Amino acid sequence: MAYPYKKMTEEDFDYIRSVTSPDRVAVGEEIATEYYRDEMPEYGVFPPELYVEVENKEEVSAIMAYAYKENIPVVCRGAGTGLAGGATCKYGGIMLSIMRMNRIFPVDHKNQTITAEPGALLIDIQAAAAAEGLFYPPDPGEKTASIGGNVITNAGGMKAVRYGLTRDFVRCIEAVLPDGSIMNFSSNVVKNTTGYDVKDLVIGSEGTLCILTQVTLKLLPAPTCTSTLVLPFSSLEECADMVPKVLDLPFVPTAIEFLERELIDIVERRLNKMFPVKQGNAVLIVMYDASSRQELDNAIEAAAEAALANGALDCYIAGTPERAGSVWAVRGAILEGMKADSVSQEECDVVVPRAKIAEYVKAAKRIALSHGIRVEPCGHCGDGNIHTEMLRGPEMTDEEWKSATHASLTELYALSKELGGQLSGEHGIGNGRLEFLEEFVGPRMINLYKSIKLAFDDKLILNPGKVIEFNK
C-alpha cells in the first residue's frame, strides 16, 4: 500500500525516539519552520509530522524499516540548499536529517580518494583534500551544501566544463534502501563492469531511491597555476557568441560564466560586493587551471587575443587570489542578490548544446519579456547550463505572476527541447519542475522512471511526489 500514507501516532513517535534519542526528535509544532522547505519556497512548503536527526547508518536503517512496515513517508534532508523543492515533506511523515552524520575520514593517498558521511559540507571536503595537496573539483555555487545532497542531485557548478559533474568523482556509495537494507554500490576501484551500474543510477536520483550514509570520492592533484579573465562586451549577444570561440581554442577552460551588467549592479547595490570591471553591458568570465606557468600564460594569451578579435572591449586578468576572489564572489552572490531585489523568483534551469547557447539566450530574453517578466539569464555557459532567472516586481499580483511564469516556462522548456537540450542541467526536477517532465521526455520515459522507482521503493515511501508522481 502507498498513498494514502499512514498518519503518524504517538506510538510511531515513541518508536523513532527509542531508536535514536528524544533530544534529536521534534514533533508537530516543535519542528522549526525552516525545515518545511528548501531554498525555493515557491516550489512547496510542507510540514513534516516528525523531524529526526540521525547519527549513523543503523539509525537510518531502523527508521526506514519501521516506515516501510507502517507505510509512513520519509524525506531525507541535508543542508536544505536545494533549488527544486526536493527535500520537502509533500505527504507529511518523517523528515530525516543527516547533518549530524558529518565525519570526513583521512585521505587515502594510495587511491587518491576521500570518504565522508553525507552531512559533511562541500567546503570541508574541499579543504580536507587541499590540506593533503589534492583537489576535489566539483564546485556548485553553494559551498555550504552537504556532500550527500551534492551526490544525490549530481551537482554541477562552474568547473564542470573542465572537470565534469559530481558523478564523475563518485567511486562508491553506501546507502539504506526504503526497506531498511544497507547496501554498497560499487567499491573503491577505478573501473567496474560488474552488472548494472546502480551507483550511477543512484547519483542524481534526488532522494527518491535510497538514503546515502557514506560516499567515497575521487581526488585529483591540485593545479599549480590558475587565473581568471574578465572579458567585457557591449551586449549580451556578443558575449554569448564568444563562448564557442573560447571552446574552439586548444586550451580547455576550467569555467566559463556570463553576467549581464544589470545582475552585477544588483549584487553591488544590494550586497555591497564590488565587481572589479566596470566596462560593458555583459561580461564573460573565463578561468584556466594549469600545471605550469607557461601553459597558463599560453592559455590566457590565446583567449585574450580571440576575445579582442571578436568584439571584447578589453581583457582584464585577475591573476591573484584576491582579484579572482572579487570576481567569483559577485558571481556566487547572484541568487542572494536577486532575492534581495525582487518579491519572488522563478528559474528555468535548462541545459542546451554549447553551440546553441547564444540562440537560447537571445530567444529566452524575448520569451520572458513577451509575458511581462523581468528576466536575467546567467550561468555555466561552458557546459550550456543557462539559469534563466525570472524576477517578480511588487506591481504583479499573485495570479499575474503565476500565469506569466507558467507561460514563460512552457515556452522556454519547448525551446530547450527544440535546440536539443534538457529540462534541468543541475538543480533537478524535485517538485518544482514535475509538471513539465512528461511533456518533455514523453510517456515511455516516464514509465521507465516509474519502473526504476518501484524496483527500489515498491511502497513509494521515500521522498514521494518528487521527480516522478504516482499519487495523482
Overview of the molecule:
With 472 residues, this protein is of the alpha+beta class. It contains 15 helices and 17 strands. The protein has helices at 10-19, 57-70, 122-131, 147-152, 160-163, 198-202, 236-247, 261-271, 293-309, 321-332, 334-340, 357-370, 398-418, 434-441, 443-456, and strands at residues 25-27, 50-53, 74-77, 94-97, 113-116, 134-135, 170-176, 182-185, 211-218, 220-221, 225-233, 255-260, 282-290, 316-318, 345-351, 374-380, 385-391. Strands 14-11-13-12-16-17-15 form a 7-stranded antiparallel sheet. The protein has a 4-stranded mixed sheet with strand order 1-2-4-3, covered by helices on one side. A hairpin with a 5-residue loop joins β7 (170-176) and β8 (182-185). It is globular, with a radius of gyration of 23 Å. The two termini are 15 Å apart. The mean pLDDT is 93.
Provide keyphrases for this structure.
472 residues, alpha+beta, 4-stranded mixed sheet, 7-stranded antiparallel sheet
Q: Let me know the average pLDDT.
A: 93
How many strand elements? 17
Task: Provide a count of the helices.
Answer: 15
Low-confidence stretches: none
Q: Which assembly state applies to the chains in this document?
A: single chain
Question: Span from first to last CA?
Answer: 15 Å
Largest sheet: 7 strands, antiparallel
Which term fits the overall shape? globular
Strand order of the largest sheet: 14-11-13-12-16-17-15
* Percent of sequence in beta strands: 15-25%
Helix content: 25-40%
The structural class is alpha+beta
The whole-angstrom Rg is: 23 Å
